[in-house]
Automatic annotation (TrEMBL):
Name of the gene encoding the protein in the UniProt record: ATP6
Main localization of the protein described in the UniProt heading: mitochondrion
Domain of life: Eukaryota
Protein family membership: Belongs to the ATPase A chain family.
Entry's transmembrane regions: 51-70, 82-102, 108-134, 154-175
Full protein name: ATP synthase subunit a
GO molecular function list: proton-transporting ATP synthase activity, rotational mechanism
């Protein structure tokens, strides 16, 4: 976590434009990423909820830097740990649930009842909707973990194959 935070701060420090008239390449890259994430946030949650943009922006860079650290030799990607991935997922899930309860009060629970539901089906549908809402936190953490493990396994397989292919002289025999 300290490495991810320090890398992010270095990027922000080198990309600042406080004293320059012409922006640096880092500054352009950071502003471009900010504009892209801002467009996605506006499209998904609207203009009124742009207050959450710094959190989403920080979360995006935390995950991307944490995943890119794993591409350096002899390092470990922290999101390939199920504890970190599911812990991050549950932390965000609890925060979003508390925020929903704070903003909507008891009306928050009405989102678990689909519109137009017959009264007889309400208990069953509330149970199904609450279960799917709770399972979302676990599934997002497991998906991040599984994608990172699959990607690193694929890189390991390909790098081992290329090493053996170049080491065996097969490539030299084919092209000569």
């Amino acid at each position: 976590f300290i490495l991810v935070t320090s890398i992010h701060l270095v990027f922000k420090g080198t990309g600042s434009n406080n004293t320059k008239l012409i922006p640096s390449q880092w500054s352009i890259a950071l502003e471009s990423s900010y504009a892209s994430i801002n467009a996605i946030v506006r499209e998904q949650i609207g203009l009124r909820n742009e207050i959450y943009l710094p959190f989403i922006y920080s979360l995006f860079f935390f995950i991307i830097i944490a995943n890119l650290i794993g591409n350096t030799p002899y390092s470990f990607t922290i999101t390939t740990s199920i504890i970190v991935s599911v812990g991050l997922s549950f932390t965000i899930f609890i925060g979003v649930t508390i925020l929903g309860l704070y903003k909507h009060g008891l009306h928050f629970f009405s989102y678990f009842i689909p519109s137009g539901t017959p009264l007889a089906l309400v208990p069953l549908l509330v149970l199904i909707e609450v279960t799917s809402y709770l399972a979302r936190a676990l599934s997002l953490g497991v998906r991040l973990f599984a994608n990172m493990c699959a990607g690193h396994t694929l890189l390991k397989i390909l790098s081992t194959f290329l090493y053996q292919m170049f080491g065996s002289g097969l490539l030299v025999a084919v092209f000569t």
